[in-house]
Amino acid sequence: MKRSSVLLLLAGAVLIAAGVLREEHVTVLHKGVNLCLECVGIG
Amino acid sequence: MAREKRSGGRWKIQLLATLACNPFLSNFFKGKLYRGPLKGVCVPGLNCYSCPAAAASCPIGSLQAVVGAPQYQVSYYVVGILIFLGALLGRGICGFLCPFGWFQELLHKLPTRKYSTRRLHGLTYLKYGVLVVFVILLPMTVVNEVGLGDPFFCKYLCPAGILEGGLPLSLANESIRASLGTLFTWKSCLLVGVVVLAVFFYRPFCKWLCPLGAFYALFNKHALCRLSVDQDRCTACGACSRACGMDVDVFRSPNHTECIRCGDCIRACPHQAIRRTPDLRATHKKELSR
Question: Is A16–B88 a contact, with Cβ atoms under 8 angstroms apart?
Answer without folding.
Answer: no
